[in-house]
From TrEMBL:
One GO molecular-function entry: ATP binding
Name of protein: GHMP kinase C-terminal domain-containing protein
Gene3D superfamilies in the record: GHMP kinase, C-terminal domain
Entry keyword annotation includes Ligase: no
Organism: Triticum turgidum subsp. durum (Durum wheat)
Keyword Membrane assigned: no
Entries under SUPFAM superfamilies matching the protein: GHMP Kinase, C-terminal domain (SSF55060)
Lineage: Eukaryota, Viridiplantae, Streptophyta, Embryophyta, Tracheophyta
Gene Ontology BP terms: galactose metabolic process
Keyword terms: ATP-binding, Nucleotide-binding
An example Gene Ontology CC term for this record: cytosol
Length: 310
């Protein structure tokens, strides 16, 4: 089976782990990435929550604003640190270390995408200074603008900043880790680690305010299935789950062993969800080579030539 990496474009469920391989969507344009093999002992399922998801609502817009606010704060903080490192007040360090440190800070001061910032740099230099929330007015007074042409800051509104800033930074790391783990040895530990990454993705997205009752219920049902199995009774078959797409509804991706017992547990989750909500989730199963086999189209927008009247 093949896993098609679409970084930055939300496709249909045919790539069930697209969110894990899609974190660069946060502020970064789409990139078509290479194909990655899904090991034969691993299987993915998509469970439709029955809740129509939307990335055009107020919640998504406010999260986008908060993300751009966080990026602006980090870039300004990096610029300040560059200035400090060039003065006599800078901590005593070797010239070589200081020069390399300044290069890193200069790069971060001109950073275009939060997903390019490694988690260790975020924690070392910026995390403590990013507020949980900030009012639009306070942000505009201190920073002027958030440098996003799509959204407008409401001075009277309070925006969450820390969660949407942290999410793309750690999500990109989770993506790369997930990709590397797919090539690890075929063990329960491998599946457990992959599932844990998916849970972390899910709750990080929820922290941004983009979850829903339906997707949360499905993820909780997967956890119940996973944790009711112990080594004495054969161990779990399902190992993780996460919301997919733009959030605020939509489908949940589940990872598990490629075996009959996993399929039976997915069917049980379907029935339990229906009993609680009245809706029987549609199950999407399997994968396809996608663009790796069929190719893809590039759509380019041609700007009309401007004619200047004489």
């Amino acid at each position: 089976m093949l896993l098609e990496l679409h970084v930055g474009s939300w496709t249909k469920w045919h790539l069930l782990v697209e969110k894990l391989t899609n974190s660069l969507q946060w502020l970064q344009p789409a990139e078509v990435k290479e194909l990655v093999m899904i090991p034969s002992h691993i299987r993915f399922w998509g469970l439709d929550s029955g809740i129509r998801h939307s990335v055009g609502g107020g919640d998504y817009g406010s999260v986008r604003v908060g993300t751009y606010m966080g990026r602006k704060m980090i870039k300004c903080a990096a610029s300040d640190l560059v200035s400090v490192s060039s003065t006599s007040d800078a901590p005593a360090q070797s010239d070589d270390y200081k020069e390399k440190g300044r290069d890193v800070l200069k790069s971060e001061a001109s950073m275009e995408y939060l997903c390019k910032l490694p988690p260790h740099r975020y924690e070392a230099a910026y995390s403590k200074d990013i507020p949980e929330t900030i009012t639009g007015g306070a942000f505009l007074e201190k920073y002027g603008d958030h440098d996003d042409m799509v959204t407008v800051i409401d001075p009277k509104r309070s925006y969450s900043v820390k969660a949407p800033t942290r999410h793309p930074i750690y999500e990109n790391f989770r993506v790369e880790t997930f990709k590397a783990l797919l090539t690890a040895a075929n063990t329960d530990e491998q599946l457990s680690a992959l599932g844990e990454l998916m849970y972390q993705c899910h709750y990080s997205y929820n922290a941004c305010g983009l979850g829903s009752d339906g997707t949360e219920r499905l993820v909780n049902l997967v956890q119940e299935m996973q944790h009711r199995k112990t080594p004495e009774n054969g161990g779990p078959n399902l190992y993780g789950a996460k919301i997919t797409g733009g959030g605020s509804g939509g489908s949940v991706c589940v990872i598990g062993k490629n075996c009959l017992q996993s399929a039976e547990e997915i069917a049980e989750i379907q029935q339990r969800y229906k009993a609680a909500t009245g809706y029987l989730p549609i199950v999407f199963d399997g994968s396809s080579p996608g663009a790796g086999k069929f190719g893809y189209l590039k759509i380019r927008r041609r700007r009309p030539k401007l004619t200047i009247p004489e």
